[in-house]
Amino acid sequence: MTPSRPYVLRAFYDWLLDNDLTPHLLVNAEVPHTEVPHQYVNDGQIVLNISPGAVVGLHMDNEAVSFNARFGGQPLQVYIPMAAVVAIQARENGAGTFFPPEPAYEQWLEAASDEDEPAAPPEMEPARPEPKKGRPNLKVIK
Length: 142
Description:
The protein is an alpha+beta fold. It is built from two helices and seven strands. β6 (85-90) and β7 form a beta hairpin.
């Protein structure tokens, strides 16, 4: 059976937003391929605000959560494998859930830790907008 974590995560995310709450992810930053700002990691974990106002390009699929966000004024790309997602909760009242261990992720973690040269996750580079070329094309509409 496929893991339920990505499906439950997306459902709780939508539910929290529908109730005007701020979704936060609790992430195990020590899981292989996890790309988070390490200066904000405490005890191997980090809490990330994933509300639409805090992140750009949020993508949650069955493999990972990824987005761009600013940390200390610096734009960074964040990549979180599903195996690293510990919980999703609302900042305001703690509504949400902790995810139990799942056999598929335990196997993935064993395989990832056994790899001599793991597959490179997306690079954690500052997200820079492409500079526009040419003249602006604004038109006055009367």
